Amino acid sequence: MSSISTPSSSSNNQSNNKNQKTDLINETNKTQFPNWLELLEDIWVLIFSKLLTIEIIENVQKVCMLFRKICKLLVTFRTINMTIPNGCSYVNLPSSLDYLTRYAIDSSAGGLIDIYLEYRVGYGYDDIPRTTLTYITERCKNLKHLRLGYMYNSSLTDEKVIEAVKKLPMLDEIQIIRCSFSYKTVEAIGHACPSLISFGLNGLGCKLPDYMSDDEYYTCTDNYVRNDEALAISKSMPKLCHVQLIGNDMNNEGLKAILDGCPHLKSLDLRACFHIDLSGDMGKRLANMHLRYPNDSTADYGHESYYIDDNDYNDYSGLSVSDDDQVVSFDDYDDYLDYYSGCYSS
After folding, report:
1. How far apart are CA 157 and CA 171, in angstroms?
2. pTM to 2 decimals?
3. pLDDT recorded at residue 259
């Protein structure tokens, strides 16, 4: 005789099925919609480290109380990247850009380890690099990595740079990107920072058109070769382990001087150094070194590395700003701090 389900057993089965469906839905929701608020602060700090400092100050810390709390952590500002985003409205505010940098430096409370200052020419920042660097030397004695980008025709003279690095005893890495400092300044920096183990001096290399004949190519190449910066490095930075010279105009003579003067080199970045020939003995000498070759891709570099010496060439490396950008102005730095302290209450 077949068994007959009683009403109570049928009800229990329906209840169990309902509970199973509810558990399945909850499990699915957990998989598809994680609770981001449960992430550890260390993970958020790691995520924020991938952002530009301007974005953290102007956007991230205004999102919610959690983000505001994390942005107050000293570790968030151990590294400061003051690159200006494309199309960013802050390029219309010379004073505000200086305030943004000072705010980030103050937020580090003396714990700043690495800073990159980039001020593109043509946006009225002539006096900011000098005042900002002075602000750093007075408050960030533990700074280890100093990176400067796109500083030429500004008040940050060669003398001011040398004076600044002398006041930063912990520096072991300096990177200079597309700046107009002379080779004498490079040598003076080396003497002022005897503990340097990493140095970058990146320029804009010249690549000659492919249609040139061999005779035309070598004749033109001679006009672009310049070894003074390489010689300055070789004379003043004997402890270097890592050197980056993207877009440099040196040839094998300058490269040989660096190898002779810096016997501890472990890595060398020669991308866009089109006057270097590594086909012979020089290539063999570099065989055991971590090497980036002249024609290697610069896709991960983030800056223009060379131009083609052609009549059709135009430089589009400048930033553009929309007329619709909205800006906020401040009379002084104290007004700026009051504005940001009022964004979210503690």
Report:
1. 19
2. 0.73
3. 95
